Amino acid sequence: MSPLVSSAWLSARLQDPTVVVLDATLPPVGVTPVVDTRARYLAQHIPGAVFFDIEELSDHATLLPHMLPTPEAFAGAMSILGIGDRMTIVVYEQEGVFSAPRARWMLRVFGAPHVYLLDGGLAAWLAAGLPTESGPVHRTPAPFTAKLDADAVRSYAQIQQTIAARGQIGGQIGNQIVDARSAGRFAGTAPEPRPGLSSGHMPGSTSLPFTELVSDGRLKDPTQLREIFREKSIDLDRPITTSCGSGVTAAVIVLGLEIAGASQVALYDGSWAEYAQQPNAIIEKSL
Length: 287
What we know:
Blueprint: E1 4-5, H1 7-13, E2 19-23, H2 37-43, E3 50-51, H3 71-81, E4 88-92, H4 100-109, E5 115-118, H5 121-127, E6 153-154, H6 156-164, E7 176-179, H7 183-187, E8 206-207, E9 214-215, E10 218-219, H8 222-231, E11 240-243, H9 250-260, E12 265-268, H10 271-275
Parallel strand pairs: 1-5, 2-3, 2-4, 4-5, 6-12, 7-8, 7-11, 11-12
Antiparallel strand pairs: 9-10
Helix pairs in contact: 4-9, 8-9
């Protein structure tokens, strides 16, 4: 089954107690004043939807943004939200494609088997004339067993190994790094949004701004996605690691690769926020 589901598909299953809907909207980067996405959720959301706060559910024992929590912490948080590990989970965001893929990736990397993204998000739901509600939603706690899929996550040490072995083919040595940040940040001609970080890119990495995979608030279709990856010389049959500024939009690339048919995909959780502050990290400029 495709990782994307339609509004009609979800509407037909909205009363199913084994289906849970999550609003996983993060505020857009660089917009001031900061958008209060939780307030927007409270004002209007798909009936029964729970707010999945990516920031709150991340690891706060590190200064790095949006890092995965421990499996135990994630399991406890999901249980409190009423998200069972055998449930069918549908994630959406209020507009565009930005943060919901990160929520889906988090759930998948901790073992949830049936996690989908609502194609077009809340905007598509509203366009279809489907109902919404307001106010908080409280679900009955449910058991969630979290087990980290270590093959889906990359560390700084693994990224360093990949960079050192670039150009060699075979297993993880043939790993490609795809960077979801803007072309300017990748080239080093635009600043990073986080103070004190140099822009630029990892040696051997490929620039693919996540926005290139999106059109009219939706992921492009499989044929279009495969063509984009082909034009970027990204080999879907070889291992791929995605990266971005803080591990959020790298998940958009993960989703696009999944739809396009790639199977050996991991995400560098620390991404540029971690890489660029390492004293031994090599930072290249220009495309």
